[in-house]
Amino acid sequence: MILGAGGHGKAVLDLLLTPGGSGRFEVVGLVDAVVRPPAAVLGRPVLGDEGLLPALRAAGVTDAAPAIGDNGARAAAGARLGALGFALPALVHPAAVVGRGAEIGAGAVVMARVTIGPEARIGPLALINTGAIVEHDCVVGEAAHVAPGAVLTGGVRVGAHAFVGAGAVVRPRVRIGAAALVGAGAAVVDDVPDGARVTGVPARAGG
Ligand SMILES: CC(C)(COP(=O)(O)OP(=O)(O)OC[C@H]1O[C@@H](n2cnc3c(N)ncnc32)[C@H](O)[C@@H]1OP(=O)(O)O)[C@@H](O)C(=O)NCCC(=O)NCCS
């Protein structure tokens, strides 16, 4: 069961429907706060709103994917699903490359063409989006989002709920603080404080 029938929910469903990507999972459908016709995504039904979740669990649906792009909303959805007894599997696209000793937390999603280097650690509910590179020894915090094509070079640390925009590049061993935002295309050469927002080349506060 996928919670979230928007763009990210569609991408997670696409991952699960890709041969080799679904593994042990059969997709029952999606659930969303708002159900608008046509109530289907990629041919799978949008079953209803969150009120359905206890019945789905009782009916034997075991696993759920909180598929909401916003980091805070995804973390909250993960907590609600866990409290209802759903397992939150890590989902890794079959076209991703994951290095030796890398760890991927519960509920994290690793999209197509991602490369994760050896001994990198991806936190629970983190989203490593299409084509991103997370090099060796990086640590990506809980419910953080590394957007499409972003590059975290070796040993970068990304705090919980932080967002690294599409195509951004982060210099080795830089620390990006919790809930910080890095704009698309930025080159991050210095540490970014918790909650800060940086953009540009080199990245500076503001934007
Ligand atoms: C940085 C960002 C969050 C700013 O969004 P915003 O608050 O809506 O900002 P605005 O579009 O109003 O732009 C404000 C100013 O910042 C500039 N700006 C916006 N994004 C920028 C970026 N990524 N790099 C450099 N400058 C940027 C704008 O040109 C504008 O400058 P101006 O005031 O001189 O005209 C956003 O542009 C961004 O980069 N988001 C990441 C998108 C992404 O990667 N999504 C992935 C989804 S999977």
Automatic annotation (TrEMBL):
The active site is at H136. Acetyl-CoA binds at H145. Residues 1-75 form the PglD N-terminal domain. GO terms for molecular function: acyltransferase activity. PROSITE patterns: HEXAPEP_TRANSFERASES (PS00101). Keywords: Acyltransferase, Repeat, Transferase. Substrate binds at G69. This is Hexapeptide transferase. It comes from Caldovatus sediminis.
